[in-house]
Amino acid sequence: MKKLRVVSARLASFVFFIFALQSCVFIDGDARLDPKNPDSETFDLRDFDRLEMGSAFDVKVRQSGQFSVFVRGDRRDIDDLEVFVDRSGKLVIGYRNYRVRRYDMDVDITMPVLRGVDFSGATVSTIDGFTNTRDLEVELSGASKSTIDGDWERVDIDLSGASNLTLRGQGLSLIGDLSGASKLNAFDYLVDNVDLGLSGASSAHVSVDKSLKVDASGGSSLRYRGGPEVRSNVSGGSSVKKD
User: Fold this and answer.
1) Compositionally biased, Polar residues: which spans (predicted)?
2) Does residue 82 share a domain with residue 12?
3) Same domain assignment for residues 162 and 182
4) Model confidence, pTM
5) Does the structure show a pLDDT above 70 at 179?
6) CB within 8 A of 6, min separation 6: which ones?
7) At the N or C end, where does the chain have fewer CB atoms within 10 A?
8) Residue 233: is its pLDDT beyond 60?
9) DSSP 3-state of 51
10) Is residue 27's pLDDT more than 90?
């Protein structure tokens, strides 16, 4: 019996060691790293008003009368970038090939008008300074995060896969959908009308003056500031409450 206990203890220790080793390998492979061979490049592209990126870039976008696209990262990663403007006027940036490990890649963009972004793959973005723009479409997926500071008449959002959007500024309407434990932080984005659908334990904070329409399910929650007329359809342990 004593020998059996010793064998069991050794087996448990071995299993724990293998699990810890696997965990360390996973964490190391997933971590972002400083460039080994740092370099930068400027792309001469223009006439775009939308952005699409599908990797863990650190993106900064600001309004300017001039177009510019500048990247900073490891030379090997820069050489693997695909950067182009499609026929619809969308700037697309991504990698040609799949690699488990990528170094940090910074992307700096200036443009006169921004009408839409589609970010996925854990992209982190900051968008700042846009005014006098009518509509903005924001699509975030794959645990992407974005902070947007500007004024649009209407913002249309689609957040999924534990993505996170922070809005600052003001506008007329905020509409869209959140799913998969996504979050919207818009207490600092004052609008007249809000129309949102939330599912899958998503959450939203909004500031609204006139009309608030919410469809919330699957343990989702919405908190609002202001004195709007509220119409809500709530199920599955969800909630809509005044902050």
Assistant:
1) 232-243
2) no
3) yes
4) 0.85
5) yes
6) none
7) N
8) yes
9) strand
10) no
φ/ψ of 235, rounded to 5, equals -150, 170
At 60 the three-state DSSP class reads: strand
CB 110 within 8 A of CB 91: no
Which residues lie across from 124 on neighbouring strands? Answer: 58, 145
**Number of structural domains in the chain:** 3
Whether 60 and 91 map to the same domain: the answer is yes
Residue 77 tokens read as 């990663």
What is the maximum span of the chain, computed from C-alpha positions, in angstroms? 80
- Report the chain's terminal Cα–Cα distance, integer Å: 62
Instruction: For residues 25 and 38, state if they share a domain.
Output: no
Residue in this structure with the two tokens 């409450």, named with its chain if needed: 241
At residue 229, φ and ψ (nearest 5 deg) are -75, 125
CATH number of the domain residue 202 falls in: 2.160.20.120
- Residue closest to 218 by CA, chosen among 240, 202, 242, 195: 202
Are 63 and 181 part of one and the same domain? Answer: no
Which residues partner with 102 through β-bridges?
A: none
Q: Are residues 172 and 190 in the same domain?
A: yes
**Residue 142 belongs to what domain range?**
114-243
